[in-house]
Amino acid sequence: MVLIKFENSHEKVAMNLLSFMSSEQKLNVLHHTIQLYEENPNWHLYFWKLKENFVGAIGIELNEHTFNVHHASVHPDFRNEGIGHIMVEHVQRLHEPLAMSATPETKDFLAKCWEHQFSG
User: Fold this and answer.
1) How many C-beta neighbours within 10 Å does residue 93 have?
2) Domain range holding 33?
3) Is the Cα dihedral 22, 69, 91, 4 positive or negative?
């Protein structure tokens, strides 16, 4: 299990994992999102790799004192295994001391991850 930073060679993986988000199901929106991660130095996309499979993605935008989680997705075959929680935890540690915040698209996902953190 490891967190891997997006590279251009991961474009198909990114498109696959991000397409599980309802906001990213249109191809033109998905292409625009990938372009943001490729071109904007404040936007970072990470993958969670389990053995040989990329099973999750989390994308953030860095700001001066915070980072916003814009994208978070776990492949349906690997949901409810705590992978989202682990990805959030790793990204949070990676960008300390910045405070993490959600966007409308990721608030439910992050709330579920935080609930998991405090319940178990």
Assistant:
1) 9
2) 2-119
3) positive
| CA–CA gap between residue 109 and residue 115 (Å, rounded) | 10
Asked whether 19 and 34 are in contact (CB, 8 A), the reply is no
The single-letter code of the amino acid at 107 is: K
How many domains, the chain?
1
DSSP state, residue 88 = H
Cα–Cα distances (Å) from 96 to 66, 117, 119, in that order, read 9, 17, 23
The CATH number given to whatever domain includes residue 72 is 3.40.630.30
Cβ 46 vs Cβ 3: under 8 Å: yes
- And the tokens for 81? 């295994």
User: What digits encode the pLDDT tens for the residues 8-58?
Assistant: 899 999 999 999 999 999 999 999 999 999 999 999 999 999 998 999 999
Burial class (CB in 10 A: 0-12, 13-18, 19+), 74: buried
Question: CA of 52: how far to CAs of 48, 90, 105, 108, in Å?
Answer: 10, 19, 28, 28
Q: How does pLDDT run across 48-57, given as a tens digit for each residue? A: 999 989 999 9
